[in-house]
C-alpha cells in the first residue's frame, strides 16, 4: 500500500540511533533487505503518533532487541536500562537495600525517575510500588514478554503529556507469536552467593480467528550480605547493643563510662536484595474485518521482596524524674543538678535485624480497536486499566512508648551491658511487626486519528481521559508516633486529567521535513497546561541527514507530592552546632496540595551519517532546562545559613538559631531548577561476521538548584560522570556458535565528603557470553558479567557499602547460563 525507496530504508538503522544493546544478527541483513523491500507497512514509532514507513523522525530513539537482552544475561528491565550511557544520577534496584521497598526504576539523564515516562505498547503503565508511588516499578514487567525496548531521548510531553520530560521508555511486547518456547536460566557469583534462577514459558496459536499469546515467568533472586565483600569496610554506628544514656555507656559496675565502641551494621545488611516474581501475561489480536483490528493484552505480576538491615537503632527521651538517683550520678553537674531529660539509645540486637517484606500485586489490562479508512487514514480507540496493591511489613520494629515504660520499670536491666531476652521484649510489647498498606490505580480512555494526505503530509490528533489515585497507610503505631522509627501520616488522594493533542509532519521539498505537535492537558488539581514541539530533518545527500527538535514539557505533581502528610526521615547531615551525636538527623517531610506543575524546555540537534558500506554514526547534542521543579530546600545549606545568623533560613526548615533541630521540617515546593546538556554519539560497523557498536554520552553540564554536579558523585544524588560508554562486538564464529564481548566504561568523578574532597578512578566492566544453537530447536547461552571482578570505587559519603550501588557494580563476577527450546 505504501512505497518507500531503498536509500531511506538503508538509513533506518542510523536514524534510530540504535544502541550497543540493539545490534542483532537481523541488523546485519538490514541493508540487503532494503534493496528488495518496496512495500513497507506504516508503523508507530516512540515519540510520534503519526504512522510512518521509516524511523527517520527528528527525535533520537534507541532500540534494544530481545535477542540482545538474552545474550547479555539480563533478567530485569532495570538491569537492561541501568547500563545505558543515558542513565545517570541515582535509581533504585536490586542493590538498593535501604528505602527501595523492593522496587526498581530508571533515571534518564539523571533528571529523576519521576521525569521518565514508562509505556507498555505505547500506553501508560500504572505507578507501582508500595503505595502512592510516582513512578513505575520495572519489576512488574517480565522480561520474557519483551520484544524490544525503545528509548526516546528527548522531551515528549507534547505527544504523551506529563512525566515525559527527560524521555520515554516504551516496552514492546511479543505478539503474533506461533509455537511454544520454554526457557530456564540461572546465575551465581564466583563467591557462591546471589544465586538467581528463573523459568518462563511462551506459547502462541490461532484461535477464534486471531492470534492468542500466553506466557508465564518465574524468577527468584538470591541474597548477598554486605560484609561478604572484601571492599566493604566494617560499619560504625554510635548506637550499640549495650545502649547509651546521655552519650555514656554502662560500665558493668552500676555506672556509666564514655562510649569507646561502635556497631558494625554491614554483617546484617544486604548487598543484593532477594525477591520472587510470578508473572502471567497474554495478548490477543484479531482482524474483525478487512479494515478493522481488535487487540487486547493483560499482565499480572506478584512480587515477594525482602530487604534486611541491622537491628533498629532505637532512640527515646527519658525523664530523669522517673529514673533512680543511683543512675544519675554520672550526669550531675557541679551544682548537683541533672538534666530534665536524657537521651537513651540502644541498637536493638536483642530483637534481631530489621526485615522488610513487600507483597505487591500489579495488574494491567488494555483493549483497543484500530480501523483503516479508504483514504489510508487510521483511527483507534483504547481503554487501559492498571492497579497496584501492596502490603509492606517490617519485622522486629520497636514500640518506642512501650520501650520507655519498660526502661522505667526495669532500670537495672536496661542500664546494664547485658542483652535483654526475647521473652522480656515480648512481655513488655516492645518488638512487633509493623504492617503498612498501599496502592495505586489508573484508568485511561483514548481515541486517535492519523493519516497522510496526497501531498505526503502526515497528521495525527486525538483525545485522552485519565484518572489516577493512590494511598499509603502506615501502621497505627507509626502514625501515633509510638514507634522507635520516625512518625508518619497516611497519604491518600486522586486526580483526573482530560487531554487533546495534534501532530503534523510536513515535507518542504524532497529533502526538508518539518514536524510539529501541540497538546493541552486539563488537570482537576491545578488547571491547564499547554506544551508544544517543533522538529525538522534535512537530508543533504542520500547518506547524510541532520535533525533537530525544540520542545516544552511539564510534570504534574503526583498523589504523594500533593497529599502526603508528615513523614520522618533520618538524613545524613552535619550539625554545625554540634548538638547531635549522630550524622543521621530527623527531618520531617511534608507535601503540599497547592503544588504547581514543573515546566521544562528541551533542545536536540544532531546528524545521521552512513559513512560507508556497513559503517554508520549518529551524533546528537541535547539540552534540558527545568523550572519550578517540585523539590525541597537544601536542608544542610539552610542549617549552615541559620547557624550563621540568617533567620529566614531558620524559618524555612523550622529550626532555631541556638540549634534546636527537634522539629526540623522540609516541605515540597516549586523551588527547584535543573539545567543539563551533553552529547550522544553512536557508531555501528558491520564487517563480514563481526558487528561493532560504540555508544557514548558526554555530559557537558548538570546543575541543580544552583549547584554544579557535572563530573561529581555523591551518596544523596548519585553519579554524574562526564563520560559513559558501552562497546560491543558480536561475531558468528560458526553457523551454530556466536560470541559477544560487551564493555561498560564510567569516567572517574569527584566528590566532597563532610568537607574532605575525594576522587574516583575510571572504571571498565568487561562481560563475555556465547550462544550455541543445537539444531533448530535448542539454544544454549552462557557468559560472565564483570569478568575481571572489578570492585566499586570508594565513595566516603556513599548511600551504602562505602559507594553508590546504582552507579557501580557491588555484586562482582557473576556466571550465567540459560537453555531455550522452541517447538
Automatic annotation (TrEMBL):
Top-rank taxon, per record: Bacteria
Protein's cellular compartments: Cell outer membrane
Signal peptide: 1-20
InterPro entries: Beta-barrel_TonB (IPR000531), Beta-barrel_TonB_sf (IPR036942), Plug_dom (IPR012910), Plug_dom_sf (IPR037066), TonB-dep_rcpt-like (IPR039426)
Single GO cellular component term: cell outer membrane
Domain TonB-dependent receptor plug, first and last residues per copy: 55-168
Keywords: Cell outer membrane, Membrane, Receptor, Signal, TonB box, Transmembrane, Transmembrane beta strand, Transport
Stretches assigned to the TonB-dependent receptor-like beta-barrel domain: 344-787
Membrane topology field: Multi-pass membrane protein
Major localisation: membrane
Similarity field: Belongs to the TonB-dependent receptor family.
Protein name, as recorded: TonB-dependent receptor
Organism classification: Bacteria, Pseudomonadati, Pseudomonadota, Gammaproteobacteria, Alteromonadales
Amino acid at each position: 500500500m505504501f512505497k518507500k525507496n531503498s536509500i531511506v530504508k538503508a538509513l533506518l538503522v542510523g536514524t534510530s540511533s540504535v544502541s550497543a544493546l540493539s545490534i542483532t544478527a537481523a541488523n546485519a541483513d538490514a541493508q540487503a533487505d532494503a534493496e528488495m523491500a518496496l512495500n513497507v507497512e506504516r508503523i508507530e514509532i516512540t515519540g510520534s503518533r503519526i504512522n510512518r514507513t521509516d524511523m527517520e523522525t527528528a527525535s533520537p530513539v534507541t532500540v534494544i532487541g530481545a535477542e540482545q537482552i538474552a545474550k547479555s544475561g539480563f533478567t530485569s528491565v532495570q538491569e537492561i536500562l541501568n547500563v545505558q550511557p543515558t542513565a545517570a544520577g541515582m535509581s533504585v534496584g536490586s542493590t538498593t537495600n535501604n528505602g527501595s521497598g523492593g522496587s526498581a526504576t530508571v533515571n534518564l539523564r539523571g533528571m529523576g525517575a519521576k521525569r521518565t515516562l514508562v509505556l507498555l505498547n505505547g500506553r501508560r503503565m500504572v505507578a507501582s510500588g508500595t503505595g502512592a508511588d510516582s513512578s513505575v516499578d520495572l519489576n512488574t514487567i517480565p522480561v520474557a514478554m519483551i520484544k524490544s525496548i525503545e528509548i526516546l531521548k528527548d522531551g515528549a510531553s507534547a505527544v504523551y503529556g506529563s512525566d515525559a520530560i527527560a524521555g520515554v521508555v516504551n516496552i514492546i511486547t511479543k505478539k503474533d507469536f506461533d509455537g511454544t518456547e520454554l526457557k530456564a536460566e540461572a546465575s551465581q557469583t564466583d563467591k557462591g552467593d546471589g544465586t538467581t534462577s528463573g523459568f518462563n514459558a511462551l506459547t502462541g496459536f490461532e484461535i477464534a480467528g486471531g492470534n492468542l499469546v500466553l506466557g508465564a515467568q518465574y524468577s527468584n533472586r538470591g541474597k548477598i550480605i554486605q560484609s561478604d565483600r572484601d571492599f566493604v569496610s566494617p560499619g560504625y554506628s554510635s548506637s550499640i547493643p549495650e545502649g547509651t544514656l546521655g552519650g555514656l555507656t554502662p560500665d558493668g559496675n552500676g555506672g556509666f563510662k564514655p562510649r569507646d565502641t561502635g556497631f558494625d551494621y554491614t554483617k546484617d545488611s544486604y548487598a543484593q536484595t532477594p525477591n520472587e516474581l510470578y508473572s502471567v501475561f497474554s495478548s490477543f489480536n484479531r482482524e474483525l474485518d478487512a479494515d478493522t483490528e481488535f487487540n487486547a493484552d493483560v499482565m499480572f505480576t506478584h512480587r515477594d521482596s525482602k530487604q534486611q538491615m541491622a537491628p533498629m537503632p532505637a532512640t527515646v527521651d527519658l525523664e530523669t524524674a522517673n529514673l533512680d538517683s543511683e543512675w544519675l550520678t554520672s550526669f550531675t553537674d557541679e551544682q548537683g543538678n541533672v538534666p530534665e531529660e536524657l537521651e537513651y539509645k540502644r541498637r536493638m540486637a536483642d530483637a534481631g535485624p530489621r526485615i522488610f517484606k513487600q507483597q505487591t500485586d500489579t495488574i494491567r489490562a488494555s483493549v483497543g480497536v484500530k480501523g483503516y479508512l479508504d483514504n489510508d487514514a487510521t483511527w483507534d480507540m483504547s481503554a487501559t486499566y492498571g492497579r497496584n496493591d501492596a502490603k509492606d511489613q517490617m519485622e522486629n520494629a520497636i514500640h518506642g512508648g512501650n520501650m520507655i515504660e519498660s526502661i522505667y520499670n526495669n532500670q537495672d536491666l536496661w542500664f546494664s551491658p547485658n542483652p535483654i531476652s526475647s521473652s522480656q521484649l515480648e512481655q513488655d510489647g516492645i518488638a512487633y511487626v509493623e504492617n503498612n498498606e498501599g496502592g495505586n490505580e489508573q484508568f485511561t480512555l483514548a481515541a486517535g486519528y492519523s493519516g497522510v494526505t496526497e501531498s505526503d503530509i502526515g497528521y495525527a490528533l486525538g483525545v485522552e481521559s485519565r484518572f489516577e489515585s493512590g494511598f499509603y497507610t502506615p501502621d497505627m503505631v507509626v502514625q501515633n508516633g509510638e514507634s522507635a522509627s520516625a512518625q508518619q501520616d497516611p497519604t491518600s488522594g486522586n486526580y483526573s486529567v482530560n487531554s487533546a493533542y495534534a501532530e503534523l509532519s510536513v515535507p518542504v521539498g524532497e529533502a526538508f521535513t518539518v514536524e510539529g505537535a501541540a497538546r493541552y492537558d486539563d488537570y482537576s488539581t491545578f488547571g491547564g497546561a499547554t506544551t508544544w514541539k517543533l522538529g525538522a530533518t534535512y537530508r543533504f545527500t542520500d547518506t547524510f541527514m541532520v535533525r533537530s527538535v525544540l520542545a516544552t514539557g511539564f510534570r504534574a505533581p503526583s498523589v504523594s507530592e500533593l497529599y502526603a502528610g508528615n513523614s520522618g526521615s533520618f538524613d545524613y547531615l552535619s550539625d554545625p552546632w554540634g548538638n547531635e551525636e549522630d550524622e543521621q538527623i530527623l527531618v520531617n517531610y511534608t507535601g503540599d496540595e497547592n503544588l504547581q506543575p514543573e515546566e521544562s524546555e528541551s533542545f536536540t540537534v544532531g546528524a545521521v551519517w552512513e559513512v560507508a558500506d556497513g559503517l554508520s554514526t549518529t551524533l546528537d547534542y541535547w539540552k534540558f532546562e527545568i523550572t519550578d521543579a517540585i523539590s525541597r530546600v537544601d536542608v544542610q545549606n539552610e542549617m549552615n545559613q541559620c547557624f550563621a545568623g540568617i533567620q529566614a533560613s531558620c524559618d524555612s526548615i523550622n529550626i532555631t538559631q541556638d540549634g534546636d533541630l527537634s522539629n526540623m521540617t522540609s516541605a515540597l515546593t516549586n523551588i527547584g531548577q535543573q539545567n543539563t546538556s551533553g552529547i550522544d554519539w553512536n557508531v555501528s560497523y558491520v564487517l563480514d561476521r563481526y558487528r561493532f557498536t560504540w555508544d557514548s554520552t558526554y555530559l557537558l553540564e548538570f546543575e541543580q538548584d544552583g549547584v554544579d554536579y557535572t563530573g561529581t558523585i555523591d551518596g544523596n544524588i548519585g553519579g554524574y560522570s562526564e563520560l559513559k560508554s558501552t562497546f560491543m562486538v558480536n561475531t558468528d564464529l560458526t553457523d551454530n556458535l556466536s560470541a559477544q564481548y560487551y564493555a561498560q566504561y564510567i569516567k572517574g568523578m569527584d566528590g566532597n565528603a563532610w568537607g574532605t574532597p575525594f576522587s574516583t578512578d575510571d572504571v571498565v566492566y568487561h562481560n563475555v557470553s556465547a550462544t550455541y544453537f543445537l539444531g533448530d530447536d535448542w539454544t544454549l547461552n552462557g557468559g560472565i558479567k564483570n569478568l575481571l571482578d572489578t570492585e566499586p570505587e570508594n565513595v566516603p559519603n556513599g548511600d551504602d557499602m562505602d559507594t553508590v550501588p546504582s552507579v557501580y557494580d557491588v555484586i562482582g563476577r557473576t556466571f550465567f547460563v540459560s537453555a531455550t527450546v522452541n517447538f
